[in-house]
Amino acid sequence: MNTTITEATSTPEELKARWAELLEANPKLRIRNAAEELGVSEAALLATQCGETVTRLAVSDWEAFMQTWKSLGKVMVLTRNENCVHEKTGEYEQIHPLMHGGKIGLTTGKDIDLRLFMGGWKHAFAVEDLSIPGGHSRSIQVFDPTGTAIHKIYVKSEAGIEPFHKLVEQHRAEDQSKAFAAEAPEPKRPEMPDAQVDKDALLAGWKALKDTHDFFPLLMKCRTGREQALRLAEGVFTKKVSNTAARKVLDLASERGTSIMVFVGNDHCIQIHTGPVKKVMEYQDWYNVMDPGFNLHLKESGIVSCWLVRKPTTDGEVNSLEVFDKDGEVIVQFFGERKPGSPELEDWRELLSAID
Known about the structure:
single chain; alpha+beta; Heme iron utilization protein-like fold; 9-stranded antiparallel β-sheet; 18 strands; HemS/ChuX_dom; Hemin-degrading factor
């Protein structure tokens, strides 16, 4: 899900000055949008503040580094892609040992639930801005090799300030220069043409699914993209619906009090909300959930297709709404709240039956 960014030839000092000019003209401009406007990576822009509000961190052991997050107490965690931002407030509870040779990470807890794909975890910065109107901002921010943000952690309690400073001192890099060299994104593997996909094998494998987690290995085995597979299974396991379906799911969940799961991520991190959604609202191009402890911001103009998806499991069928962008990448996925070993909520199935 990386956005291709070409680093400008400006020096860090020139880049910093250009960012300052942008902020003077638009004080509310977010760093991601400023980076896009300036033609650089977000991490390159952040690095121009090293030695001031930003500290470059050196992380040689990501598993040990992640374990320190529990000391921060109450935090707001943010994971996003180009068209959706997912924010959860809570505490890191269980940060599990890395699996599959250090490639997969997992955090679980009442509020913070993450799936981590460690292959692209490359850079980390600590940001401490004491000039934020209405309060200070302290965060740990992780980036991939292209300088695209993976995951951000904002300290939300006084008790977390000292552990934050301790974490920064433990991991402070010797290099605190303002320069940042972003790597070019790896080319996306081209999709196999539909006509070359063994559709019968795909549908047979789909019918034989025992767990939703078996779906990705099936796609790999059949060498199909995710949206491509949904398209090939249309009328059997999937149904294409209106691009307003995501808004309708949120509206109905809010009206009916249905407990849902909302998955948002990028190539290297998926963040999950489980529970009800209450306050939903439109603001400019974004449709939003604005609840205590959970905020979602969905850019509706980025939605190119929406699919209702049905997967067999040993616990019965699991139904979801999957939302895609122009590149066939997942923007957001919605499920009914469900625990392994338990059947899907009937309330969720009834809600999805109203989506067209």
